[in-house]
């Protein structure tokens, strides 16, 4: 058996087992050393391929797709710095628990560390971020080696999606020549000799004794809080709201909690807590007896202050399969059990827990008064950043997804996304909270076929504009709302703004870019509304057309900062005047 046949059979069996184990999509960046994987992936009848030229964009494209579909997605690149460009997305996948299968082609062992071109040290290139790393053996086609390569493929898919989802990294060395032979008989090998097709993984639960112990600790507590931070399980909403109803407890629902929209019961949901918890006086008035949190830490910094200031109360964090997500550093008891099962079981222990009716009414009244302030609009129809988000949430289609950028975008969503009956999944890259890769992530989500709106700031948009190429290549339907305050608007809310001699250069970073020309280059439709009415029309028209649609809303950073602060002050004044 010659080299080409061994290369082909080894690689074809590997790819076939990835597909057999559940892989449906692979994102490929062109390169020479990855030729065997790339060409054979395009030949496999049950694997969809997406070619994204830039590796950083490709990795975030795969990340967005995996977030949307909740299935592992593979990324394939050549050797050298191409693999290094995956690093930001690998980090995000680790922290936001997204299943990525990272496949980096490599030089064979004899060409490593000898000055060969396009050869870097790719062994454990991503450090501890992958859940599993393996440096693959060089291709052979013996029965033992074909079993070996199938086992590694099966383990990669299984490991990425077991427990807390995350990235895995397989480094695959190839010797030249690299072009496979498609004429071979039985190209994809025999699956009869492959490893087990799946794995049965049970859900963690609490036994009756453990449930009773938690109940006993809370029996005398009348002022509880349920908090739901960023998470992606669409079925959790009914369970959490059911627990809140049983215990008469308010729910602080993060915009990424999947609780603010949907058909579930919402009377106990408090969505404007970030606005009124900015007041230290109000935070002191609202001291709870306990907090139970599901999902990651909420976006709201005001909530973090609230937790830190009440660090002596019992706090429980529910993690489906373990993990440590408590950045406030408070004394916390972690409950490692399936969140839905925990909610349903705790709801049965409702006697004596959360029965202070005034407590729930207080939160609900503060929420109503805050929403009245937040939703009030100037009669002029002037466009503000908050107004743009409010308008988006009024017209965004049912049964769609919203991918939101970091910095001000997700915070404005937190403030202005009120409860709604529509079905809307909200996604974001809140693992590492970076602004890189946001356009590509949104494109990856849109590649699944779901209607997607991407909302982000001008710096995030600029940082990843080459991600727009995927929309042109694959005719993806996506609406992008760019809120352009000509720089880093979030810094206007931070202490750096008080140092004006350095602020614009180091933090404001105005770009003065005409984005319309870039949109034309990628074949998209571009609109720049100047009033709320024009924005509403622009959004409606974008949802009625195919392809890439970009809507740019221009605002002033200084005016935006004053507008937000005036809103927060008006809310505090109203609540304190209300006697609460």
Automatic annotation (TrEMBL):
Top-level division of the source organism's lineage: Bacteria
Catalytic activity: isochorismate + 2-oxoglutarate + H(+) = 5-enolpyruvoyl-6-hydroxy-2-succinyl-cyclohex-3-ene-1-carboxylate + CO2
Co-factor(s): thiamine diphosphate; Mg(2+); Mn(2+)
Record domain Menaquinone biosynthesis protein MenD middle: where: 220-404
Enzyme Commission number, as recorded: 2.2.1.9
Family (UniProt): Belongs to the TPP enzyme family. MenD subfamily.
Descriptive protein name: 2-succinyl-5-enolpyruvyl-6-hydroxy-3-cyclohexene-1-carboxylate synthase
